[in-house]
Design goal:
By secondary structure, the protein is mainly beta. The protein is 9% helix and 67% strand. It contains one helix and nine strands; from the N terminus they run αβββββββββ. The chain has one helix spanning 2-18, and strands spanning 21-38, 45-46, 48-61, 64-79, 89-108, 112-131, 144-156, 159-172, 181-193. It has an eight-stranded antiparallel β-barrel with strand order 1-3-4-5-6-7-8-9. It is elongated. The termini are far apart.
Amino acid sequence: MKKLTVLSLLLLFVISVSAQPIFNLGLKAGLNNSKLTFKKSEINSETITKYHIGAFGRVGAGKIFVQPEAYFSAKGGELEGGNVFDVASEFDFNTVDVPLLLGIKVIDGEKANVRLMGGPVFSFLTSKDVDGDELWDPEYYKDQYIGLQYGIGADIFGFTLDFRMENSSNMYKHMDSDLNAKNQTFMISVGYKIF
């Protein structure tokens, strides 16, 4: 047993020494396609397209890395009139998002790679608005909430391309709990590594 432990530690040491360290810093921007989801199934929610812009870092060794980010993000969603409401309503809000993603390179080439990543995202509201039905009030937005991001990305030379989904906890807490809303966003990002 002692020999197996020593051998395992030696193997782990060799792998960690031979793994190339990763340290990147870069800028990123992209599109958000977001909507609100409700407990009440009769609410018809439609997506709207907005944007995000910010920075990312990447630290790791070998194929494993941690990628913290910070960016300004515009999100929202539209509710169609009909079954429940007489008029359409539009939710519009902006956040500063701080994801902390754990990733792995599934294809690790010399000039290009493909990555899988996922982790929590912490969102802080910077503006909030609702247009339409009087039932909805901007005061029901939470000032901060957390979510989960996951997706796939690629690096080609100094450029990055990411496709991610984001699902939040309740970020709009209405007096009627059936009208609490979560945010769901599909994100496409393009970035450039400065370092």
